[in-house]
Design brief:
- Strands 5, 6, 7, 8, 9, 10, 11, 14, 15 and 16 form a 10-stranded antiparallel β-sheet that branches. A 5-stranded mixed β-sheet has the order 18-19-20-22-21, sandwiched between helices.
- Helix 4 crosses helix 8.
- By secondary structure, the chain is of the alpha+beta class.
- It is globular.
- The longest helix has 17 residues.
- 22% of the residues lie in helices and 23% in strands.
- Strand 23 and strand 24 form a beta hairpin.
- It contains 12 helices and 24 strands.
Length: 523
């Protein structure tokens, strides 16, 4: 294992998750929840809750502070299978993200981004297990024995189009090449065996279905509603058409995803999921879908007709745990911390692939519409135009081109994950008349609430150069900083001063070797 990977042992001293020694490996959602419980990161709710708006109200109100616990709702009326609902699975907790991908939860956000670049580059192909050995086959129903309305399917917001069974879930399709795609698409429940499917135009899930329809065949679909968090995370990221998210998930977990044969479709199903449906989507078979209160804090458009899954088979474990993802403003949104870290790592990887030198860090701030709209790039300026080049290439790299509105470049002495430092750079190193550029007619989000309907999906991006002007670096004012020797002395005597918590981690110090005492960075 590389530095930062975390299999055994307690969190580092001073972490808010101090505990006794525990393993950090798991095979499915239940084992991962056991790990969360050991770390005090899971809150069980035993009181009965109404899935129609009350569940989401509890979730929203309990998560208005960053780092709020995961919530497992265990009691519902009219619930013949004893199903439970997990909400805020990851939310705004970088610690739970770390536990989900096998990293040390005490790592800094910057270190997690760097480690994520490494672990998401690994690939481990899935394996097939026998149907009798698949936990998801504890209960199997077919045809008219299926009634999904008997499960606690949440209605999240007052003006939602109905209950949504698919939010913290995955949808699997297959290409003609045999590549299995894993995507995250919302799914509205329309009836006992009818599930709406809100595909995103241009994404692989819809392309796979359209290829089947072009041949006059129904598209085969597998959807899983109680999944390991890694599968949801990779399903929400973008990968090339010849890559399978199953291989990425296996690489992150350093263990192959277990699949098994279904009852009806040719697609495999996740063997260790809590609840899985197999279904067919016929060309032209649609239901009125939406709206849904979304991650940006608005309802996403008007009701419209979307493809519908005709459910053929249902697999589930005893007392299945359904994963529900509340879409809301930060920090209550399910895609807060993990999206910020994974998207930052992918942008950083893109810049490395484009050979942009001097990049010190990238961060997509989670409060900016779940890390979609604001990217900060820290760099060590090496030549004239370097900051402008980094801004332009970030705007057009695959991981950032979609929906990003604000791209900010800062010097290497600014931590891109620390918004206070970023605001300081904007306030002291950016002259708006000289340092702002606007890119027009760029790719936006189809439900961007800031755009008029006729403008979608074309948006714009602002490039903000908050670096020290390269041509004036020699005469730029010197930033204040501590001597490294004094920092080390105070850090070592922290307990003597009876100060709370742990001493801050600093890496910028007074440079005694340079005339005027410029700032130096710890290597």
């Amino acid at each position: 294992m590389a530095a930062g990977d975390f299999q055994q042992g307690a969190p580092r001293p001073g972490s808010k998750m101090d505990s006794t020694s525990k393993p950090a490996r798991w095979r499915d959602l239940r084992e991962w929840l056991s790990l969360l419980e050991q770390y005090g990161e899971l809150h069980r709710i035993g009181a009965a809750v109404d899935p129609a708006e009350e569940l989401s109200a509890v979730t929203f109100m309990a998560t208005r502070q960053p780092g709020a616990k995961a919530l497992l709702f265990e009691q519902f009326d009219n619930n013949p299978f004893g199903a439970r609902v997990l909400a805020n699975m990851l939310g705004s907790s970088k610690e739970r993200y770390a536990l989900a991908v096998g990293l040390d939860p005490a790592m800094t956000t910057r270190d997690m981004i760097a480690a994520t670049s490494r672990i998401t580059s690994r690939r481990v192909a899935p394996i097939k297990v026998a149907k009798r050995n698949a936990p998801v086959n504890e209960i199997v129903l077919r045809g008219d024995d299926i009634d999904l309305t008997r499960f606690p399917v949440p209605t999240f917001w007052p003006a939602d189009g109905g209950p949504f069974i698919g939010t913290g879930s995955i949808t699997m399709t297959a290409a003609a090449s045999g590549r299995i795609n894993v995507g995250v698409y919302r799914q509205q429940l329309h009836g006992p065996r009818r599930v709406g499917l809100s595909f995103v135009p241009g994404r692989h899930g819809l392309l796979d279905c359209e290829a089947a329809w072009a041949q006059g065949k129904p598209a085969e679909i597998v959807a899983a509603y109680g999944i390991d968090p890694v599968l949801m995370m990779v399903g929400s990221q973008r990968y090339a058409a010849d890559e399978s998210e199953l291989d990425v998930a296996g690489g992150i977990m350093e263990s192959p995803v277990e699949l098994t044969d279904g009852e009806v479709v040719n697609l495999p199903i996740p063997a260790r999921a809590e609840m899985v449906i197999e279904g067919l989507v016929y060309p032209g078979d649609e239901e009125v879908e939406g709206p849904l209160g979304e991650f940006h804090g608005f309802y996403s458009g008007k009701p419209s007709r979307k493809p519908a899954i005709e459910v053929q088979a249902l697999h589930m474990r005893e007392r299945p745990i359904m994963t529900a993802a509340l879409m809301a403003t930060y920090p209550s949104c399910e895609i807060g911390a993990y999206q910020a870290i994974m998207r930052s790592a992918r942008i950083q990887d893109n810049l490395a692939e484009m050979k942009v030198p001097g990049i010190q860090g990238v961060y997509c701030h989670p409060a900016a519409a779940s890390a979609n709209c604001l990217v900060v790039v820290s760099l060590r300026q090496m030549y004239p135009g370097h900051a402008s080049q980094a801004l332009a290439l970030t705007a057009h790299c695959p991981a950032a081109t979609y929906y990003t509105k604000w791209i900010v470049a800062v010097d290497e002495d600014v931590d891109p994950t620390n918004f206070d430092e970023v605001v300081w750079a904007l306030s002291t190193r950016c002259n708006p008349a000289d340092d702002l550029d606007v890119l027009r007619n760029t790719m936006s989000f189809r439900a961007d609430p800031s755009l008029a309907p006729e403008a979608k999906p074309f948006g714009s991006k602002v490039l903000v150069n908050a670096c020290t002007p390269y041509r004036h670096r020699a005469s730029a004012p010197v930033r204040t900083a501590l001597r490294e020797s004094l920092y080390s002395r105070v850090r070592d005597r922290w307990q003597d001063f009876q100060l709370p918590g742990q001493p801050p981690v600093l890496d910028q110090f007074y440079n005694e070797a340079k005339p005027g005492g410029d700032v130096k960075q710890r290597p």
